[in-house]
Automatic annotation (TrEMBL):
The keyword Hydrolase does not apply. Belongs to the class-III pyridoxal-phosphate-dependent aminotransferase family. HemL subfamily. One of its GO terms (biological process) is protoporphyrinogen IX biosynthetic process. It comes from Paenibacillus lemnae. This is Glutamate-1-semialdehyde 2,1-aminomutase.
Length: 440
């Protein structure tokens, strides 16, 4: 088994980065704070399912850049689309035919979206769905679910108050209490909590927003009936339903959670607005939102809700997104990611069991989360009640053997179309060694 302990250049670069970039990272999730601190690994090259760091160590990647890289790194079809776009000029500030093509692909795959608008990130997409819902309903409050992450705009950096019917409190410095008071947070998978919140705030609630399959405190399926109940309660209350599908769209099949066969009753779980990002840009910055025509027509220049973007719909991101979706249209693509993911999760579970290490795996097709606990993980409280120290130890043992995971116990593992049986075998051998060391 190869070890990758020499990360001297990463350490050196981290020290330098700390001088110039706040915290040394451009997104807090990249820091190693949650896994005991120290220098994160500085990567310099990636191809397929593999990364090479600045010290030339090789890693198998399960981070997939937090989701977008579903076809593996530097896929030739996507690379060609991006270089072609670059040669034709990367930004016009005018409409393009390419945008229509990607919009049509999204609409065909996600029928609840009659109209689409491209933006630059998942954060922007979610932020704007909230504005549109408020404009349409002429109401101001939003209900969201604990542990779901919706980007970093003010309205969604809000934590629960003391119960489902209490107003939110800021979850970040700089978010005013007055904004947090516009948000109510209830537990995921808890229709009673939602009922209580809707009964309390009634016609003040513009929208109920949810990750229909959670990707941010592990991968968590909605319990049977949860999304049906959520949609019915919200609509009976005159509120809109917003699905944040920034992680889930094109993740489990060629479509989104709202069309995923694992969730049976599609008609009863259709949202009014959907936010997208990640995979639909094939690795370049993108976001999109869409929904029913009469609701989307609130958006400028047709309607009174303003939203704009200098970079929105730029030809490079759009071409990259089209190329990524074209790959995902290939036959058997999702089935193969699922096959590898089953092999990996079964092996991980068996290995953890062998060494007496409690492990609960939530797998949904080619993605899964591995929680160091014995209980099921169906909501945020259960995801929090897991052994962070065990995860940190596992993370470091795996990294030292060339397996790149997200440095947080809440993040998912993503298989890509580039992973192979050899990668799985190597990963399982590393896991066996990690669990052995943890148990000794
Ligand atoms: N919504 C969900 C479900 C996400 O997981 C994320 C990012 O992880 C976002 C929104 C924000 O997307 P971005 O980081 O592109 O702004």
């Amino acid at each position: 088994m190869s070890t990758q302990n020499n990360r001297e250049r990463s350490k050196h670069l981290y020290e330098e980065a700390l001088e110039h970039i706040v915290g040394g990272v451009n997104s807090p999730s990249r820091s190693f704070k949650a896994v005991g601190g120290g220098a994160p690994v500085f990567m310099k090259r990636a191809k397929g399912a593999h990364f090479w760091d600045e010290d030339d160590n090789r890693y198998i990647d399960y981070l997939a850049a937090y989701g977008p890289i579903i076809t593996g790194h530097a896929h030739p079809h996507i690379t060609k689309a991006i270089t072609d776009a670059a040669e034709n000029g990367v930004l016009y500030g005018t409409p393009t035919g390419l945008e229509i093509r990607l919009a049509k692909m999204l609409k065909e795959a996600i029928p609840s979206m009659d109209k689409v608008r491209f933006v630059n990130s998942g954060t922007e997409a979610v932020m704007t769905t909230i504005r549109v819902a408020r404009a349409y309903t002429k109401r101001s409050k939003i209900i969201k679910f604990a542990g779901c992450y919706h980007g970093h705009s003010d309205l969604v950096l809000v934590a629960a108050g003391s119960g489902p019917s209490t107003l939110g409190i800021p979850d970040s410095a700089g978010v005013p209490a007055s904004i947090a008071h516009e948000v109510i947070t209830v537990p995921f998978n808890d229709l009673h909590g939602l009922r209580e919140a809707l009964d309390k705030w009634k016609d003040e609630v513009a929208a109920v927003m949810v990750e229909p399959i959670v990707g941010n405190f592990g991968m968590v399926m909605p319990k049977p009936g949860f999304l049906e109940g959520l949609c019915k309660m919200a609509h009976d209350n005159g509120s809109l339903v917003i699905y944040d599908e920034v992680i889930t769209a094109f993740r489990f099949h060629y479509g989104s959670a709202q069309t995923y066969a694992g969730l049976q009753n599609h008609e009863a779980i259709q949202p009014d607005l959907t936010a997208l990002g990640k995979i639909i840009g094939g690795g370049l910055p993108i976001g999109a939102y869409g929904g029913r025509k009469h609701i989307m027509e609130q958006v400028a220049p047709l309607g009174p809700a303003y939203q704009a973007g200098t970079m929105a719909g730029n030809p490079a991101s759009i071409a990259s997104g089209i190329a990524c979706l074209e790959i995902l249209q290939g036959e058997g693509v999702y089935e193969e990611m699922e096959r590898l993911s089953i092999r990996l999760t079964e092996g991980l579970q068996a290995s953890a069991d062998r060494h007496g290490i409690p492990l609960t795996i939530n797998r949904i097709r080619g993605s899964f989360s591995a929680h160091f606990c014995q209980h099921p993980v169906t909501d945020y409280d259960e995801a929090q009640d897991t052994d962070g120290e065990a995860f940190a130890a596992f993370f470091r043992h795996m990294l030292d053997q060339g397996i790149n995971l997200a440095p947080s116990k809440y993040e998912a593992w993503f298989l890509t179309t580039a992973h192979t049986d050899e990668d799985i075998q190597e990963t399982l051998a590393a896991a066996e060694e990690s669990f052995r060391q943890m148990a000794s």
